[in-house]
Amino acid sequence: EAVTPEVSIAALHPLLNVGIKNYHVVPKGEEAQAAKAQKMGRYLQFDDGYTECLQNATYLGWHLKKLKLQHLMRIYNSPERWILVVPGRNQTSLPAPSSDEPITLDIPKFNMSKTLDFSGARLLKTCRLMTLTNDDFDGRAMEVLSDALRSNAPFSVEKQSDRLEYRAMTCLMRLTGLRLHRFGNLNLQNEEAYLERLTRRAFGSPRWHGKHARLAELQTLDLVHKVALSGAREYAFRLTNGNISLIDGIEFMRSTPCDEMYTDLLEAETEYL
Fold it and tell me: Whole-prediction pTM value?
């Protein structure tokens, strides 16, 4: 396969230390920390699981939200928390007879009949952190996050309940949807057909490699988005005893973010660790 498929859910901030070629010095200092807090706060702007937007410290969940922001700032530049490498699209592929001819004229695609298991995926752990509510960890979410901040040990949120899994899957669907939005009106089938024609005409050219990389990202995001959608529906079915239309009354997930002014206040109150 020409490109290793991977997906990133870092839709709202740049990863600054990914790979040798793209290495950047990670900025430090109070001004840099404030900039990090501003970016990471956007991930929490939906106040998932709460029927009201968390406007200030009088709202249940405000202090937990501050803890979540501190944890997100800790993993700001941790690629393993934002990027998932997906198994190859054609795992039976063999080397070509020579570098001058393609292995196959067929465009690599994922086998959708094989369900990817995301139960322990690092991406879901990040989304669980983003969508925690005060009820999680048997009502001890604030205590658990506070204790973890005092420790230098790596921290991640493992599966707690079907309610949190529903929120995390919906979060994953939202973030992959934001990444897919960058592709505009590109149609996956049209892109695959175009690359198949390009393989016949310009195999191995810079343009061919560029299109392969773009298609691999598009296919991978599309796959993970569909897996997250399927997972969210499965947990919604469980939580509503089969009547998915009732899910908003059990676990409230917004389609649009809360007012940015609330996030600005949160960032101003949050200590930089």
Answer: 0.81
Q: What is the model's pLDDT at position 93?
A: 45
- State whether residue 6 is helix, strand or coil: strand
User: 30-41 vs 260-269: helix axis angle to the nearest 10?
Assistant: 140
For residue 272, report the phi and psi dihedrals to the nearest 5 degrees.
-95, 120
3-state SS assignment for residue 266: helix
Asked if residue 267 lies in contact with residue 44, where contact means CB atoms within 8 angstroms, the answer is: no
All residues at 6 or more sequence positions from 213 whose CB lies less than 8 Å from its CB, including other chains: 2, 3
Nearest CA to 47 among 124, 127, 130, 122? 130
For residues 187-192, give the mean pLDDT: 69
DSSP string, 167-184: HHHHHHHHHHHHHHHTTT
Q: How far apart are the first and last CA of the chain?
A: 42
Contacts 24+ apart (CB under 8 A), 110-116: 110/5, 110/86, 110/219, 110/220, 110/223, 112/223, 112/226, 115/227, 116/86, 116/87, 116/223, 116/224, 116/227
Residue-wise pLDDT tens digits, 201-217: 666 667 666 666 777 77
- What is the per-residue pLDDT across 46-79, written as a single tens digit (0 to 9) for each? 999 999 999 999 998 999 999 999 999 999 999 9
